Amino acid sequence: MVETILQHWIFSSFVFPFLLIFFIAFGILEKSKLFGDNRKQLNALIAFVIGLIFVGAVFPKLVVGNLILFLTVAIVVMFVGLLLWGFVAGEGGLKFGDAPKNLKYLIGIVILIAVVIATLWATGVEGNLLDFLFRQKWSTEFWTNFAFVAVIVIALAAVLKKQAA
Question: What's the domain range around 141?
């Protein structure tokens, strides 16, 4: 398999984790002014040592690597959701005027469901999930009972709402 220079094990196992921890530690030391004002060299040296110690340990690198992977996927999923919301809202935001009161919430829920389904599809989980929910011995009885309870809850909510008004 062909690799780029940035995919080499030296970069992925040592350089990138070191730079990440170095810059985070340096930023925290600069912002907190733990060693006083205008101590950039001391803060850089301490962040350098923290980065080197971090690179020497295996397990923390694996944890941070997994967290970074999760963070990048979460950022992309949030971006897709916000992009869909932007398509619906337009440049000036949602202007409902005479629209029903809870339309904004309904649109948000539909977008959330669409993003969840798209994420499940993109990760390849939806097949196993559908098999688990709908192709088991117990699924027919469960979904029948679920639909029955949902109809009762909706009917009770409608009746109680009319009585309260």
Answer: 137-165
> What is the reported pTM?
0.60
Question: Distance between CA atoms of 87 and 83, rounded to whole angstroms?
Answer: 6
Distance, CA of 157 to CA of 124 (rounded, Å): 37
pLDDT, tens only, 5-43: 888 888 888 898 999 999 999 999 999 999 888 899 999
> Is 93 a domain residue?
yes
d(CA 49, CA 54): 8
Phi, psi of 12 (to 5 degrees): -70, -30
Helices 40-56 + 16-32 axis angle, to 10: 140
- Same structural domain, 98 and 156: no
Distance CA 129, CA 45 (A): 50
Among 41, 59, 57, 50, which residue's Cα sits nearest to residue 21? Answer: 50
Task: Answer yes or no: do 96 and 109 share one domain.
Answer: yes
Are 95 and 145 members of one domain?
no
Q: Is residue 48 part of a domain?
A: yes
